């Protein structure tokens, strides 16, 4: 597989590739073209408002103090320099980029210092206009019948730093790709996928560190692949869970493979609302997920923890061929009597300890069989954390390869699962603040 560090040159040929058959601007009644910021429009917002389906909004380096809303389908928003094009919320604006139209791509730029989200893709809107997602007016259950899921999106080579809720947030959205991004300093999770079934979303080759949670998938599954990511130095590495406050419960049928999940007990991170800390992979009421060939190490509570969400059990999960090392408990089950973990398959893992000690880890349980459980360990207690804007900014990140924009037509190609191997401890380390 090609390393990201091979793509470090700025996008010098994008202008030619994107505009070979156009005049360089997008006018009514003309073929799709390119709108340059600030050459053709002073702000990104005015450029995307002007854009028509198929247009590219190409942004030159600069700090853009605005929130960007994309309402037109099949638009590509692309920076010419990932580290030099910055959409800055200044700790005052709620969102960096909000996409409520299908088949939109956001690429090769940085979003930082927003009160809620860095980049948001959603079909959940109020009256077909304003986004209606978690974080606007607290927790509320949304109706996907009134707000159908957004169909098609892509976010890649984006740096989402120091955003107050989520870095990259796909909610009530399907047929998408989240790849080659970096997320840090999020008070909830760096990358979040929620309320989609089926999802048909690929989350691959990302780095999420120094967040409350690296990756979170809530009520999301059936065609959801989380592959080859680096989730390190968060409070919690990765969670898949069910939630009564969102549609499509229970969470089910995600594939989590080939990820590095390490050292997720970082105090210098924003505090997480649920108080989670020191856990690598958490499955809270998640069902029929496949967790294979992940390297999970360095967690003072548990490498992988099974738990219930109210009366929704962790059931039917396959946890196989993972390597656990340096965790207080490598495999743990803390489900309650109200919703005991059942029908799970734990086998062929490399591990040392389990919690409770009699956890069966060498076979798939027969239908209806329950795993023995114990109360959740509370040591160490979660430290207080720091404000999200105080998390140090990431190192410079690699650029999008020099390619012409392509239409968004569902997720990128998903590799066969048997070709996703156990990751090396140095996976994507060149893009991390915490290199080995």
UniProtKB/TrEMBL annotation:
Alphabetized InterPro entries for the sequence: Beta_helix (IPR039448), PbH1 (IPR006626), Pectin_lyas_fold (IPR012334), Pectin_lyase_fold/virulence (IPR011050)
Residues forming coiled coils: none
Chain residue ranges for the region called Disordered: 126-145, 373-436
Record PROSITE patterns: PROKAR_LIPOPROTEIN (PS51257)
This protein's record includes keyword Signal: yes
Domain of life, source organism: Bacteria
Basic and acidic residues composition bias: residue spans: 127-145
Keywords: Signal
Signal peptide coordinates: 1-26
Right handed beta helix domain sequence ranges: 153-319
Name of the featured protein: Plastocyanin
